[in-house]
What does this fold into?
Amino acid sequence: MAKIKLDLHDIFNKGRLIEVELNRVIAGAVEKRIPLVEIVSGKGSGQLKKHVLRFLDKPEIKRLYHRVEKDDKNFGRIFVHFRHRGDISL
It folds into this structure.
């Protein structure tokens, strides 16, 4: 299964750049019909993860993906699942 991975460790303190990168990977997944985006926010204080989840909850972003999964084995990782038009899910 193809996926896109975005590691936010290097830009954790650059709020605007974080949103630019999140927009880039979400748009890339939609354009290339990639079914999964993995976002690594790191464990830290949890503020970056909250920032990512707020971004993903925006209505204009939320309509682009199918569901968000918080990794239960790794607190600092989020999976964004896509069901692209024409995909068949059983």
